[in-house]
Amino acid sequence: MQKDFLSIIDCPAELLEELLELAASLKSLYKGGSRDLCLAGKVLAMLFEKPSLRTRISFHVGMTDLGGEAIYVKPEDIGGIGKREPIKDMGRVFSRYVDGIMARTFDHDTVIGLAEHSSVPVINALTDWSHPCQAMADVLTIKEHLGRIEGVRLTYVGDGNNVARSLAFASSKFGMKMIVAAPAGYELDSQTIERANGVRAGSVEQSNDPRSAVSQADVIYTDTWVSMGQEDEKAKRVADFEGFQVNADLVGAAPKGVKIMHCLPAKRGYEITDEVTEMADSIIFDQAENRLHFQRALLKKLMA
């Protein structure tokens, strides 16, 4: 039985498939006006080091949809995660009060520490290393729009960051073909690519040429060039990413009907143009909605 959800690479493919099926089923149920109150009487603690729109609201709504309650915990509420008291003590204490812990942190070791010292499920809602809930919502969205996952050609254009890493792991688990197109010095790390290709050979490739990378893409995906905590690097990063903007010209180098994805928040005019964000083949807001549907399924699986 899987207790925690920290990284896609750590999850069996069968569990990931089950979660996608459950997400689709619950989405249909709730869209039809019905409810599943399987978490009635249960409480989720939501720990935040980083600000959030989609993560906070989607987890809170998902928890209440299932009949439970959610408590929003800001760093200042507890004197900072791992600062006022050790993370191992926090994990033990929270386990006595709540039925699950969701954490959105900087350091990935924070969620690992919470999971090691907690007797209740711990969910990684984002770390600097991994964003598994986002990637699973993305896979759900791809399946809805393309009718399949296996063999889908996904081109990620931008920084080899936590989202790119989680998408690489998802590609290996679901049989997608992913190309990471990034400027020199911003590529996805070789260890991640080796781990992904160790699950399924040829799952992930790297390129420094965005036009070539999108030439056979079913999906073009991008993310911010300047993540939280990197604001001091903004000017340098914007200069380094010249030529990697997802704009009409780059989309024109891809097959007709290519889908456009972005995990949001988008810096329109930087990594993606307003025109492309709003185009008919953009499925950006469908993937944002699917954060709720996937996370609702995850909460049920881990906490019911």
What does this 3D model show about the protein?
The protein is α/β, with parallel strands linked by helices and 304 residues long. The protein has helices at residues 13-31, 54-65, 87-97, 108-116, 132-146, 162-174, 190-199, 210-213, 234-240, 248-252, 274-277, 284-303; strands at residues 43-48, 69-73, 100-104, 122-126, 153-157, 177-181, 204-207, 219-222, 259-262. The strands form two sheets. A five-stranded parallel sheet has the order 7-6-5-8-9. The chain has a four-stranded parallel sheet with strand order 2-1-3-4, sandwiched between helices. Strand 6, helix 7 and strand 7 form a beta-alpha-beta unit. Helix 3 (87-97) crosses helix 4 and helix 5 packs across helix 6. The longest helix has 20 residues, at 284-303. It is globular, with a radius of gyration of 19 Å. The model has no long low-confidence stretch (mean pLDDT 96).
Per DSSP E runs of 2 or more residues, the count of β-strands stands at: 9
Secondary-structure content class: alpha/beta
Largest sheet: 5 strands, parallel
The low-pLDDT segments are none
* CA-CA gap between termini: 12 Å
CATH class of the largest domain: Alpha Beta
CATH superfamily of the largest domain, called what?
Aspartate/ornithine carbamoyltransferase
Radius of gyration of CA atoms, rounded to a whole number: 19 Å
User: Architecture of the largest domain, according to CATH?
Assistant: 3-Layer(aba) Sandwich
Give the overall silhouette. Answer: globular
Count of discrete domains = 2
CATH topology of the largest domain: Rossmann fold
Oligomer: single chain
If helices are DSSP runs of H or I spanning 4 or more residues, what is the number of helices? 12
> Which strands sit side by side, in order, in the main sheet?
7-6-5-8-9
